[in-house]
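Re: that backbone. Tokens:
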């Protein structure tokens, strides 16, 4: 592994598509609510990607320290990148890299604090808490999935909308709900393959706290909540009818839900893990683009 690929590895580069789709969703919602700026959208994207990288990096360092990444059975969607266990990068270098990414994210936050003012403060504070405490605190007290749903779901959508002009419209709030449930589920399903390693490493997630069957049912409920939230928002006139196009990616849930409701005691099929990821990325993107289309029509 080259030094460059090592940096991409600890940052979990393939997973950085998620923050891009969240910014698309939030900016599209703000556009529908009446405000959009290319400059502010790009700055928000840079900041969010940097913060997502920081979370991934600190998670890799922690999982090496606790031994989780030495025991987990890696899949393309879970189990760590293997960069640190392989020796391709030292934990110290990774930690410094994570701090730099955090500072880049903080710089974007400072930019918007100057431009927007006090409305940014709660968002920045909650985001900082999630980034700094997720791995070693929140993921060890049963709040990891909720923190992920907020920090890498609802809050980025709200933030990408808020930074446009300092206001949060109803469409942005409605768009943040599916994002919360999808990122919640993105983490939850990926925790099943890591069950034993997480147990030995001291994590306390829903799979370990509730058992596989109950956690799988929670996954199913959160999955059904996404189309329900979209239909409800359109029915109440918060989102335009064109936003119903964002229901189409929920077809991808067939595989994960079949496993969750029928064979949760067994391994999660790799195609189901992949479908779970694609459902997240596609729904956020289609929702954001449909709202931007509605704003321009």
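Recovered sequence:
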């Amino acid at each position: 592994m080259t030094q460059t690929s090592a940096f991409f590895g600890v940052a979990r580069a393939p997973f950085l598509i998620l923050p891009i789709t969240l910014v698309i969703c939030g900016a599209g919602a703000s556009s529908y609510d009446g405000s959009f700026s290319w400059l502010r959208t790009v700055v928000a994207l840079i900041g969010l990607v940097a913060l997502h990288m920081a979370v991934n990096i600190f998670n890799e360092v922690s999982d090496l320290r606790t031994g989780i990444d030495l025991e987990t059975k890696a899949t393309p969607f879970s189990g760590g990148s293997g960069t640190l266990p392989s020796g391709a990068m030292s934990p110290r270098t990774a930690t410094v890299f994570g701090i730099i990414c955090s500072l880049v994210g903080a710089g974007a936050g400072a930019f918007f604090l100057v431009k927007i003012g006090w409305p940014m403060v709660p968002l920045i504070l909650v985001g900082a808490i999630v980034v700094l405490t997720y791995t070693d605190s929140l993921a060890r007290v049963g709040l990891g999935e909720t923190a992920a749903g907020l920090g890498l779901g609802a809050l980025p959508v709200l933030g990408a909308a808020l930074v446009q002009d300092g206001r949060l419209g109803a469409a942005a709030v409605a768009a943040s709900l599916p994002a919360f449930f999808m990122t919640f589920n993105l983490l939850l399903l990926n925790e099943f393959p890591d069950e034993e390693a997480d147990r030995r490493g001291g994590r306390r997630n829903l799979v370990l706290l509730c058992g596989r069957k109950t956690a799988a049912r929670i996954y199913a409920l959160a999955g059904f909540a996404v189309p329900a939230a979209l239909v409800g928002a359109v029915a109440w006139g918060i989102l335009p009818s064109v936003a119903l196009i964002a229901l189409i990616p929920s077809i991808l849930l067939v595989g994960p839900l079949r496993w969750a409701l029928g064979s949760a005691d067994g391994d999660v099929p790799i195609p189901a893990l992949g479908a779970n990821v694609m459902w997240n990325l596609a729904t956020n993107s289609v929702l954001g683009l449909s709202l931007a289309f509605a704003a321009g029509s």
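The domain at 3-296 is CATH 1.10.600 (Farnesyl Diphosphate Synthase). Residues 21 and 285 are 5 Å apart (CA to CA).
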